């Protein structure tokens, strides 16, 4: 198999880390990214376990120059990047009336605008090699709303719109772009929401999971991060060459209702 390289933002925690492990198992070179203080060690451990080449870059999604530099360094190291997975994301839950303005800006910046900067920076090389796979980790909240998540819902809807546009522009150049729309996955991002809701509603965390978090999913289980990783591997494969511009739910039947 020819050597391939994947860059995954926010890959030192949660879903991104599980995706990174899945690509490492397939022998991809990896560019890890994330703000975890022990990110460098997390990345090195995955690379060691699977005998792959890797770099870790702590580029902040809110700093466009950091993002351009991360792409340039990765291209210098590996030649080209075949797969870009825009996964880094944050959440904040609050009514619109009191939604902190700095949280709005950060959510739009990290969950949406960073994907634009990275796609723009990677585009010339993908176009040059007439191959590229761009996978954006959106959310069921990219297709439907829930109250108190205005910035997140706006960012994820925007990310799906961006994905569709990039799919159209990439089509003549062998570049596909798709969005994955997960339901709830048990990661630090969701564990924080569970704890916050338990405090707000003064109910045990298990009750929050059953009555608040998973109410909209027909299947009352968290989505395994491994399922999202498997879908990413498929989207990166030759079998998915004509699958582009899609927003793919993996949501326990949330959007079927
Ligand atoms: P997580 O908190 O476990 O991981 C988020 C990652 O993003 C971390 O590595 C973090 O360091 C990184 N990150 C955050 N801000 C950053 C910044 N400014 N610069 C660089 N990196 C930054 O969360 P997760 O649940 O694994 O979420 C991953 C993605 O999946 C997000 O886009 C999230 O919106 C999406 N998602 C999650 C769920 C869920 O239920 N957990 C559901 C649907 C979609």
Automatic annotation (TrEMBL):
Single GO MF annotation: 3-hydroxybutyrate dehydrogenase activity
Xref: Pfam families: adh_short
SUPFAM superfamilies documented for this protein: NAD(P)-binding Rossmann-fold domains
InterPro entries hit by this protein: 3-OHbutyrate_DH, NAD(P)-bd_dom_sf, Sc_DH/Rdtase_CS, SDR, SDR_fam
BP terms from Gene Ontology: monocarboxylic acid metabolic process
Family stated for the protein in its record: Belongs to the short-chain dehydrogenases/reductases (SDR) family.
Protein name: 3-hydroxybutyrate dehydrogenase
Natural source organism: Larkinella arboricola
Lineage: Bacteria, Pseudomonadati, Bacteroidota, Cytophagia, Cytophagales
């Amino acid at each position: 198999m020819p050597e391939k390289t994947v860059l995954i933002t926010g890959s030192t925690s949660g879903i991104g880390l599980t995706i990174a492990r899945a690509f490492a198992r397939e022998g991809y070179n990896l560019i890890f990214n994330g703000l975890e203080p022990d990110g460098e060690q997390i990345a090195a451990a995955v690379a060691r376990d699977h005998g792959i080449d890797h770099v870790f870059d702590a580029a902040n999604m809110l700093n466009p120059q950091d993002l351009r530099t991360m792409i340039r360094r990765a291209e210098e190291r590996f030649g080209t990047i075949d797969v870009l997975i825009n996964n880094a994301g944050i959440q904040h839950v609050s009514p619109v009336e009191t939604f902190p303005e700095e949280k709005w800006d950060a959510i739009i910046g990290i969950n949406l605008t960073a994907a634009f900067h990275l796609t723009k920076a990677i585009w010339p090389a993908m176009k040059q090699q007439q191959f590229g796979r761009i996978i954006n980790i959106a959310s069921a909240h990219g297709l439907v709303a829930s109250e108190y998540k205005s910035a997140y819902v706006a960012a994820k809807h925007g990310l799906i719109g961006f994905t569709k546009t990039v799919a159209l522009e990439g089509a003549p150049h062998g570049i596909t772009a798709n969005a994955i729309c997960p339901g709830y996955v048990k990661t630090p991002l969701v564990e924080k929401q569970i704890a916050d809701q338990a405090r707000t509603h003064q109910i045990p965390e298990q009750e929050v999971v059953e009555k608040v978090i998973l109410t909209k999913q027909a299947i009352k289980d968290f989505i395994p991060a491994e399922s999202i990783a498997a879908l990413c591997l498929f989207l990166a494969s030759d079998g998915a060459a004509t699958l582009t511009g899609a927003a793919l739910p993996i949501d326990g039947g949330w959007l079927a209702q």
